Amino acid sequence: MAATKRKRRGGFAVQAKKPKRNEKDAEPPAKRHATAEEVEEEEGDRIPGPVCKGKWKNKERILIFSSRGINFRTRHLMQDLRMLMPHSKADTKMDRKDKLFVINEVCEMKNCNKCIYFEAKKKQDLYMWLSNSPHGPSAKFLVQNIHTLAELKMTGNCLKGSRPLLSFDPAFDELPHYALLKELLIQIFSTPRYHPKSQPFVDHVFTFTILDNRIWFRNFQIIEEDAALVEIGPRFVLNLIKIFQGSFGGPTLYENPHYQSPNMHRRVIRSITAAKYREKQQVKDVQKLRKKEPKTLLPHDPTADVFVTPAEEKPIEIQWVKPEPKVDLKARKKRIYKRQRKMKQRMDSGKTK
């Protein structure tokens, strides 16, 4: 309410409020100009926010985990992939006795729709499953020539959480099974745009190359100056085994005719070494038999002595005088040295007397 003031005659009069004085108007113009400059300086020193705050629409989440029995190299490879893929999730190791269909339930609990599963066998063979959970398709690979980030020590480097470019060999578009693998690799390895854990930068590239019926994976840094590529790591080779219609099973869509299992490969190597050993033993046995066999005497060939010229016969000389003995120079030198030493000793003894 407005303040009232009582009049003498008993009436009340309403007193109007005084207008508030604006602080900006009270300041002099020079000071007002100085404050505007300070505000501009503060805005210039302020750290800018994110480049773009868009909406996160692609909700791809990748589950990366393995079975029990993996070695240290596989464990480091899994950690490198999790670090390069900010949209990935981890889980505990799965028991080898469990069936692969259980992984679909694990993906559902983790709210993941893609999966990279490393399966170890015999503590020396490593298999990789790439699956679209829960409907499929899925592909099984044999992983070879693994080199991790810590092992390579390359000069390349990239920002953690940055989004990669995906580079594919032109051979991926020539055959249908490679086209299917290309789409599966794109959905798994590409980081979704505006992902909360990703950075809005593109500074490295994943390359997938087909050579010798295998897929070669490399990770390169993009240098800003001249767009040159410097390898970062990790690197590995995927040898395709089968492509299934479902997730971790189902009807077989494609089977690689060039694939050779590690057990068969080791068996071939053992058979080659065994064949070499058997060959050496057979050569030794043949040599022993040849030594035991009696020597065969060939009949004399009369034409063999046609070009033989007899040597001139020398007269036999009989020595009637005993030859002089040879002089041993070393013994003569020793005797002379002894004689000189004895004479020196006598002369020294005479001087002392």
From TrEMBL:
Pfam families (UniProt xref): Brix
Under Gene3D superfamilies, the record lists:
Probable brix-domain ribosomal biogenesis protein
Q: Which residues form the signal peptide?
A: none
Q: Which UniProt keywords apply?
A: Nucleus, Ribosome biogenesis
Query: What does the UniProt entry say about where the protein is found?
Result: Nucleus, Nucleolus
> Which Gene Ontology terms describe the biological processes this protein takes part in?
ribosomal large subunit assembly; rRNA processing
Q: Where is this region: Disordered?
A: 1-46
Q: Where is the composition biased (Basic residues)?
A: 1-10
Q: Where is the composition biased (Basic and acidic residues)?
A: 22-36
Q: Return the similarity comment.
A: Belongs to the BRX1 family.
Protein name, please? Answer: Ribosome biogenesis protein BRX1 homolog
Species this chain originates from? Pan paniscus
